[in-house]
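Field reference: "sequence" (input) and "structure" (output). Example, ErfK/YbiS/YcfS/YnhG family protein:
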Amino acid sequence: MRITSVIGCALLLAGCTFKGVPDPALSARDAEFMALVPDAEFDPHFARYEVADPTRESPGTIVVETKERQLYLVLPGGKAIRYGVSVGDEAYGWTGTARIDRKAEWPAWNPPAEMIKRWPHVHAMQGGPMNPLGARALYLSDHGRDTLYRIHGTNEPEKIGQAVSSGCIRMRNIDVVDLYNRVPVGASVIVR
């Protein structure tokens, strides 16, 4: 029975149309800070891959499929890069459309008043390895208004694939650096 399962999995994987995407180059600061928050073991389903585009959106668009816990960056030629993400807890989940209004490396974190009310122990902090926004943040706006939602790195990589955030889209730090390097300010974001 076990051999049949292994052969079946191998055949399924042989039919997949995805390939790995190399890690981006890192600055000395990135390498130093990221070494302090090492990646946890995670399900390979949430690794960064180039795949056939399932979104049917225009190249350059970011699509977050919250139920799949996947973020897709649509590429030309019917391809996309798929990244595993953590999404908003059911009570705090967010869906809609936005644009990247701003990008930041190792951003400072200023939790909104609603979050501080729920968790009085949280406080503002400068960018760095223990900051919950991680290595990069993409700030989302809707018609020029800050949504207060972000696509950002994390200091809890073991939670990728879960619904645990206060609505933001969390990525492994190496993945958010890769995405940050690929998308400009003004890029469209669709969260489904």
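The chain has four helices and eleven strands.
The longest helix spans residues 2-14.
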